Amino acid sequence: MKKVLFALTLALLLTGCAAKEPDTTTPPSSEPPATGVYRENSSLEQATNGAVMVYHSPESLAALGNFGDSLLLLGLKNLYTLSMDGTLSTPIPLSGTPDGANAVISDEGCVYYDRESQAFQVFDKNLALVNQVALPKDAGEFCISPALDRVFYTTGQDLRVLEFSTGESRLLNKQAQRIKPETVLFGGEMIQCRLENGEILFLSAETGELLGRDGAETEVLAAGDYFYLTRTDGIVPERLFGTLGGVTKQINTPVTEPVLLGKYLYSAREGILYDLEAGREAAALTLPETVRPKYWTIQGDAIWFYDAFAGEICRWDYAQSASFGKDGAVTVRYTAEAPDENGLETCRREAARLNKAYGVNIVFWDELPIFLEDVEFEKEYQIPAIRQALADLDAALARFPEDFLLSLGEKNADGAVNIAIVRSFPNGSDSLTVWPEASAWMLLAVGEDLTTEFYKNLSYVLDNYIIAHSLLLDDWNKLNPDGFRYSLSRTPVADAVTEGDNAAFLNPAATTYPRQDRAELFAYAMMAEAGEKLESPALHAKLEALCKAIRDAFGWQDLDITFPWEQPL
Prior knowledge:
569 residues; alpha+beta; 7 helices; 33% strand
């Protein structure tokens, strides 16, 4: 990620602008303070061996959060505090209908968006209504600062900020495409926004300065000084956590439905609570499927949440659910600058085993040779990606006859079939074959297409071997429709038939060069389960001709076996 990573997610739509004097009078309540809301011996308490206690909620809640030594309950009609001993305060009536998705609670008070008046209701630490602020009518999505002092909103390509204290709005940032504020992070220091193309921007909440950016797949949670983010590094999913400016660690086990609670991260689906400071599992609790937790917060030695299904408030004493999870769930985060050297060494040993078993030369990371200047690619350092690539290559190499790969390697100046595992190419392609000093090198990008790309690139080397040992490919052009000419460039032939019963080519790429035509066929034959496309007479004839040429080049004309590439015939 970039320089910063941050706090709770809030964003929805609204309209309205102007600050006005609030009505700070609170109508007297005829209801006495409610006490004793604890539900003794509830079914949830029994199901969790006493770890989770249940409290009656006075009404449906729009939000719940820490308020000093108490909890602040934002109901749909009233505001309450709930003390740690289970005592409920006298209700404070609210105006309008709070939007729970757009409400912020802190020790300093509460702000919520009222759907009826389309204005923000601002309460101070004494729970007095001190301000009511509406947004301009042209406002789009917005999110409230956890400092309770402002709201960030969008008007098309503009990101603006409205101060609650003055009612003044100013431009914060302008983009060339639509921008949407998603989350205000680290107590209001930074704001996470998403562009129309999905890219995420991290901006200073004061100046609008760009502090960092990341791809569309990145998701960030933050609470206090802690952050948790998920992103994809190459093809490898990362689950990272840490503190602003501190050490970033990685969680190596699934974290589904994450809830960040200060230094704790709870995986609601797996029922695991992680202590981010200690870097280990702290507790384990799987809630019954009938419980629908919302509005999580941590208070002292307990985690509180609202059960939206039962309409009750729950207190989880996580010390009673202590976990003794297996080692390795949390590790340091490896980067290209500081990779997992032990993991790389394990992969090197596996590559050496494959090289010896199949007579090839597989390399990656620092073992990659220096290619020509115009050969651009990004190296892969992620151990899971390299391990998967090696496993895919093992399965693919095992399908070839004995000495087949050794024979192909003899056409190279260095005497081997060379395979380089890389992360990616700047042009977005999945593979590349180069021929430095008369030795073929197959550069394969990690990912789900690696096996197919290996077969295609191996076909280029095979093509050279066939041409050197057989004449049966000399009449290849006769297998094409009358008048057809390959483009002999990266641009496919526009009017070539690549679909249906009369298809003469597997795909547009096959119309570029004769060897590409054969490479597409060879890879399809190696990967196809049924070979449906070969029902086309032209494609069937092409694969049959290629198979005959391979047998002729290797002297296998009389062998009574079916090779893998012949199976679809």
